[in-house]
Sequence to fold (253 residues):
Amino acid sequence: MIDTHCHLYLDQFEDDLDAVLDRAAKAGVSHIFLPAIDLDSLPKMDQLQHSEIAFHKMAGIHPTSVNDGKDIIEEKLHDLCSRPEYVAVGETGLDYYWSEDYKSEQQESLQMHCRVAKEVQKPIVLHNRESTGDLLDIIEEEQDGNLNGIWHSFTGSVEEGKRAVDLGLELGIGGIFTFKNAGVDNAVAQLPIEHMMIETDAPFLAPDPKRGKRNEPAFVKYTAERLAEVMDMSLDELESVTDENALRFFGIS
Fold:
């Protein structure tokens, strides 16, 4: 299995990181993709290592970090993301949940990340919270045939999911999808598995039956099991398809 979105470098894993990674490997996790929150995330990613797990880095500024006044000049982001050790641009996106005071700053940051992604020919990783219309509108404006991306932690409707796929986006399926009262599973069931990947967003949004606990990469198996059930596939088939989707999307051989 592949965890396509995980923040292992955060302080929540400081005390038991080795045990977390051992549990991930035992659960069958072979690749973990690491989106950045800000530039301080990057050196922490370099400290991650495990004999059975490959780690893949990204560079970018999270929209809530934009709210906190953090930024990155476009040339710096371009320089980082053009390096082979960075497989994607992000995470970026929009988040209107905490505050709507920074809409324009977040939108400008997202547009800048899109430009860099197209220039370096790497995918973009998108955070979206209570901002779906604006997010998809910006992606539509930026889409010139050279933009590939993933809507991480997909929570949209069937129509929004179809629009995202039509715009060249993949769908990251995570913990919220497993919540019985969220209704995300009903939308996902009507969308193409060929455009889905699984993720944890650890340490956040642990899936059922671990809801409310600190999330970790090993828990991606619960999302995989639920997705296999919803899509009427065997777990082995589901893992094979989503793994292939992820490796192709991120350009990993």
Remarks:
- The CA atoms of residues 227 and 238 lie 8 Å apart.
- The mean pLDDT is 97.
- The beta strands are 2-3, 31-34, 54-59, 86-95, 124-129, 149-151, 169-173, 196-198.
- The chain is about 40% helix and 15% strand.
